[in-house]
Amino acid sequence: MTGKFSKRFGHASKEKEIIVREDAPQGLREFIIQTLCAFDYKPSFQREIICRVLRKSPDPGNWGEYPNIYQEVNQLINECEWFYIYDIIESYSKRINEKHREQFQEELNDYFKANGIGWKLNDGLIETRGDVVFEGAIAKVERTLDSVGLRTAKTEIKEAIVDLSRRPVPDITGAIQHSLACLECVCRQATGNDNATLGDLMKKYPDIVPKPLDKSITFIWGYSSEQGRHLREGREPDYDEAELLVELSSTISNYLGKKIGGIEIEESIELPDELPF
């Protein structure tokens, strides 16, 4: 049995409600430096990466690792705008030794969860992180679509996550469009109709999901068409609405993907109590 005591014996901090997205709290900034120091990376290594991300020149008057360069690293990372912190994390992940990358990712993701930060480090890239239900829906649909060979649909849902993850401003309409494209692609495969829109598919093939859940797909189509493609002045969708649409599309696409692949469906489709339409 390996790993930290708290994890070995099930005492790790519980995941907190997400309260931070467009920010990089002071504690996170300090934790990044502490983590790199714990891996024995010198302040000069950290300064090189931070300066490159921030497009700044290192102070030529600072020669010694401690305290001079170390203090400079702290100043640079504490004074930069919040979104650069996540750029710095990505750069660290790419530059540190391969033997440290997995642990670095685990340490950062544990910190995000314990402090309610809505981001995660995944294969060297910072992505948006939702609650447990959201994360579960995304993981399930990616596995299912991959197993049944629906690569295009899988790419669309991954692009939706990319759009939600954009910094400093997420691409809300892009996330809605890509999540709808995923669902539309899966519905086309489920019905054998490669040309119809999602709205037309639900009129012709309402029985591809149990009633009355067919109505939910029609509502998603209507909402996505209005908010993702035909925006009204002064009525732009917000992040939470886009996240909900991505989660809904993922859950239904996972269900249909399993039907397409003949995979036993163990769980039912559970939709949120409140829908944005």
In short:
The chain is 62% helix and 3% strand.
Q: Largest beta sheet: what is the strand line-up?
A: 1-2
| Poorly predicted ranges | none
Overall average pLDDT: 89
Number of helices: 12
Give me the strand/helix succession.
HHHHHHEEHHHHHH
Helix content: 55-70%
Q: Would you tell me which CATH topology of the largest domain applies?
A: Four Helix Bundle (Hemerythrin (Met), subunit A)
CATH architect. name of the largest domain: Up-down Bundle
Key features?
mainly alpha, Four Helix Bundle (Hemerythrin (Met), subunit A), two-stranded antiparallel ribbon, 12 helices, 62% helix, elongated
How does this model look, in words?
It is a single chain. With 277 residues, the chain is an all-alpha fold. The protein folds into two domains: 21-116; 132-261, Four Helix Bundle (Hemerythrin (Met), subunit A) (Up-down Bundle). It starts with a helix and ends in a 16-residue tail after the last helix. The mean pLDDT is 89. A hairpin with a 2-residue loop joins strand 1 and strand 2 (125-128). A two-stranded antiparallel ribbon has the order 1-2. The chain contains twelve helices and two strands.
Strand and helix map with partners:
Elements: H1 5-8, H2 26-38, H3 43-54, H4 65-79, H5 82-95, H6 98-114, E1 119-122, E2 125-128, H7 132-147, H8 151-164, H9 172-191, H10 198-204, H11 213-229, H12 239-261
Antiparallel strand pairs: 1-2
Helix pairs in contact: 2-4, 2-6, 3-4, 3-5, 7-8, 7-12, 8-9, 8-12, 9-11, 9-12
